[in-house]
Structures are given as C-alpha cells and as structure tokens.
C-alpha cells in the first residue's frame, strides 16, 4: 500500500513538472511563424558579422523565397494524404477492432504508443489522425484509462520515430532531385533511401526507440484510481459518421457514384506499377516524395469510394496545412542567405574545425535537436542545415546517408515537447498541449542519451560513400 502511494506521488510530481513546462510554453512560446521571421533577422545579423554584404544577403534571401514551392506542396500533401486514408471507413473499422483488444489502462496506453509509432513510419500525417481516433475509441471501452497518458502516447510517432520512416522530409528530399535546391544537389548529389532509411543501423535504431518508448508509456501510466479519464474532462464519445445524405440534384449523381474514383484510381495504379517496374536503379529508388504522396491519394480515392466523401475528408484537413504553406517560403529565405553568400562555407569549416570523425555525429545530433526547438519542421530545418552539415561531413569522411539519419533521429526529439505538430491530434482528442506534454518530457529525458549514443556508435561502422550525381 505504501509502495503504491509513493508511486502515485511520483506520477503526480511528474505531471506537475510537465504542466509547469507547458504553462510556461503557453505563456512565453510565440507562434512558430515568429521563429521563422526571427531566424531571417538572426541569419542576416550573423551574415553581417561574418562580413557579408547587406545587399547580397537581402537579394539572395529574396531570390530564394519561392525556391521551396515544390517541397512545400509535397509536405502539404503528406498531411492531406494521411488524413484522407486515416478517416476512411475501412481504416476506422480497423481502429475500432484494435480498440477491443486491450483490457487494462496500461495495456491500452502501451498499444496506442505502439501503433502511433508504427503508423508514423508509414506517414506522420496518418499517425496523428489514426492515433487520435484510436484514443477516443479506447477511452470509451477501457475504464480507468488516463486520457492524458493516452494522448501523450498518441503523439509518440511524431516525437520518436516519424523521421526514420517513409515520410521523413529530409530523407525523401535527398532522394528527390526535383524537390532539392540545385545548390544543395551540388554539395551532396542524390542520396537514395537505401543509404538512409534502409541502412541497417537506421532500422536497428528505430526498433530500439519503439521498444523503449512503449515500455516507458506502459510503466508511466497511472492506475485507474489516479487516472484522469475522458469523462473527467467532460469529453463524450462520438464515433465518426460516414453518411453522405441524399442526392437532391441530377448533377450530383457522379459525386455519389464510385465510378470515377475507381476508374481514376486504376489509372493511377497502372502508372505507379510502371514507375516501380521501370526504375533503372530498382524499385526502392522510385519511392520519392511525389510517388509516395500519389500512393496515398490513390489509396484514399479507393477507400473513400465516392468523390463526395473524398472531398469532405480533404476539406476537413486543409486548415491543418496553413502553418506549412506560409512558413516554408520564409525558411527558404534563410536557405538563400546561407547558400547564396559565404555563410555556408564558413559554417562548414567551423563544424569541421571543432569536431573529428568520431565526434562529428554528436555535434550534428546536438545542433539539430537544439535548433528543432525553434524551427519545428524537419523538412524546412533540414534545408537550412544541410548545406554546411553535409559539407563538413564530406571533409570528415562521414557517411552522408547516416548524417541524414542522425539529423532525423535527433530532430524528432524536440517534437516531444513542442506543440507545433500536435494540433491535428489535439483537435481530435479535445485536449490542450499542456495536458500531454508531461509525458513527452518523461520520454525526452530517456530518449536523449539513447539517441545520441546510437548516432555516435553506428557512425563508427559505416564506411564513407562519395556523393552520387
């Protein structure tokens, strides 16, 4: 009895710590756009300090404002594609079936953590929606499940392993020449997925983080007596509804018919099969951002079955893309000032001078994790970092693909406590960021030493591969 009471006190202390952090964040943490604008001012000031002409900094930044238009649209489509697939009747039926498996609060939270991370390896957009719906179903079925712990577990896909999966912005960018700025391609060339996501150290790191995260989620879940359930937040269960209503006009017939969805999806499937079959470097090399997003749109067309339902899902998720659409062009300004002047070369030499082949992985991991607190976007931040990070890696003869994965593993860490990407999830489970950040803090405390150690360890055993033009 005394032991249980001590555990309860520890849980409450951890929650209080997380709430203090979240309350501070809500009061002092500005909108992410502010950080993008501050980043431009900061890089401009750094450029002046490095004796770069002010006019050149302004001109190179302005010239690059639209440099990431293609990449921006690709990121938007990841969100759209993930939501479209997660909100289909087939996937929702699978969620409801899975919700019937766990019988205890701890088992339920651990299962949310597992599926949050597994689905994030397919798409971080899919993970947010899938996990949010899963938590709602479990809250209805598993009595005494702590809603905060379940919400924190649902966000683990974004905070632990999403960047090690197929929707990794950095890995997909480096494998997609059409999305890569020309100046970055000149430095690194193409880095196919077999040199990033599918390296054996990358697979091993991902597996370790999944097991570790599930274990922490399981052990940190409060007992039913100490839990704050969905009911305590006044949240009532409401299943998804898929009724389309009735046709009122003759012109609406095709909107309610599956004919067009089937025909277009079959056409796109034909194209996708041909892309993978005819890829000169193998099927894996054909999986770039464009192909990846097209797969999700095609699957969504089939699973939603009717144009009316498909467009309803698209309309629901568009508000979640606003931050990406407006912020990425400002990150492109930062990229332009760095690569269009001498800043990139200076930073590359600085990184090379303060590190060795053995310590460079730790430097990249630390820098990427810290910068991730202020720029909560893996793709746009990688575009800013990549030029000088990869240049320094070439000087130290560190495997460029593993440098991308070091970035991916470390970049995800701040997501555990950063509310930027929580919004789609919070909208579904109807909580505030401060309600779940405490569990993110706990995961972060354990993940940091593990991630840094694995990044350093595996870098010692992967031979350097020259850039592929």
Would you write up a description of this structure?
The protein is mostly helical and 469 residues long. The protein has one domain. Helix content is 70%, strand content 0%. It has 23 helices and no strands. Helix 5 crosses helix 7 (124-141) and helix 7 packs parallel to helix 22. The longest helix is centred in the first third of the chain and has 27 residues, at 2-28. The chain is globular, with a radius of gyration of 23 Å. It starts with a helix and ends in a 10-residue tail after the last helix. Mean pLDDT is 83; it is low at 1-11.
Q: Could you list the spans in which at least 5 consecutive residues all have pLDDT below 50?
A: 1-11
Helix amount: 55-70%
Shape: globular
How many domain regions? Answer: 1
Instruction: Label the structural class.
Output: mainly alpha
Number of helices: 23
* Overall mean pLDDT: 83
Distance between the termini: 66 Å
Q: Main beta sheet: strand number and arrangement?
A: none
Rg, Cα atoms, Å: 23 Å
Beta-strand percent range: under 5%
Count of distinct strands: 0
Secondary structure blueprint with pairings:
Blueprint: H1 2-28, H2 32-49, H3 54-63, H4 69-86, H5 89-99, H6 105-122, H7 124-141, H8 147-154, H9 156-161, H10 169-174, H11 182-188, H12 200-220, H13 253-256, H14 259-278, H15 289-304, H16 307-317, H17 322-339, H18 343-353, H19 360-374, H20 378-396, H21 400-411, H22 423-429, H23 433-459
Helix pairs in contact: 1-23, 2-17, 3-17, 4-7, 4-15, 4-16, 4-17, 5-7, 6-7, 6-8, 6-12, 7-8, 7-22, 8-23, 11-20, 12-23, 14-15, 17-20, 18-20, 19-20, 19-21, 19-23, 20-21, 21-23
């Amino acid at each position: 009895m005394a032991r249980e009471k001590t555990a309860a006190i520890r849980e409450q202390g951890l929650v209080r710590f997380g709430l203090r952090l979240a309350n501070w964040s809500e009061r002092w943490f500005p909108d992410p756009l502010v950080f993008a604008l501050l980043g431009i001012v900061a890089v401009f000031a750094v450029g002046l300090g490095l004796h770069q002409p002010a006019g050149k900094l302004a001109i190179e930044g302005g010239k690059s404002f639209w440099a990431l238009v293609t990449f921006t649209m690709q990121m938007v489509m990841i969100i759209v594609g993930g939501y479209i697939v997660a909100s289909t009747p087939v996937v929702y039926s699978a969620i409801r079936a899975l919700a019937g498996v766990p019988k205890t609060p701890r088992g339920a939270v651990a299962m949310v953590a597992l599926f949050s991370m597994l689905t994030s390896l397919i798409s971080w957009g899919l993970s947010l929606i899938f996990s949010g719906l899963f938590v709602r179903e479990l809250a209805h079925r598993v009595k005494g499940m702590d809603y905060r712990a379940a919400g924190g577990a649902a966000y683990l896909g974004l905070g632990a392993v999403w960047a090690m999966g197929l929707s990794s912005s950095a890995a997909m960018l480096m494998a997609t020449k059409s999305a890569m700025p020309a100046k970055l391609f000149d430095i690194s060339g193409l880095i196919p997925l077999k040199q990033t996501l599918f390296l054996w150290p990358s697979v091993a790191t991902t597996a370790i983080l999944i097991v570790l995260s599930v274990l922490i989620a399981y052990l940190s879940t409060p007992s039913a007596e100490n839990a704050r359930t969905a009911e305590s937040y006044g949240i009532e269960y409401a299943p998804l509804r898929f009724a389309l209503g009735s046709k009122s006009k003759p012109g609406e017939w095709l909107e309610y018919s599956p004919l067009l969805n089937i025909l277009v999806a079959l056409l796109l499937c034909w194209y996708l099969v041909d892309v993978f079959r005819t890829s000169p470097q193998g099927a894996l090399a054909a999986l770039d951002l464009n192909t990846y997003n097209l797969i999700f749109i095609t699957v969504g067309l089939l699973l939603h079955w009717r144009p009316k339902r498909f467009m309803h899902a698209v309309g629901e998720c568009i508000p979640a893309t606003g931050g990406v659409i407006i912020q990425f062009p400002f990150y492109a300004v930062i990229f332009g000032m760095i690569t269009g002047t001498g800043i990139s070369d200076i930073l590359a030499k600085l990184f090379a001078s303060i590190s060795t082949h053995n310590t460079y992985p730790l430097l990249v991991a630390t820098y990427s994790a810290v910068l991730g607190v202020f720029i909560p976007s893996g793709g746009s931040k990688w575009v800013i970092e990549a030029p000088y990070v990869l240049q320094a890696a070439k000087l130290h003869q560190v495997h460029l693909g593993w440098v991308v994965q070091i970035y991916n593993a470390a970049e995800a860490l701040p997501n555990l406590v950063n509310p930027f990407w929580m919004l789609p999830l919070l909208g579904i489970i109807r909580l505030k960021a401060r309600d779940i950040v405490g569990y993110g803090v706990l995961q972060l405390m354990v993940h940091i030493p593990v991630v840094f150690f694995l990044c350093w360890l595996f870098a010692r055993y992967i031979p350097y591969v020259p850039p592929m033009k």
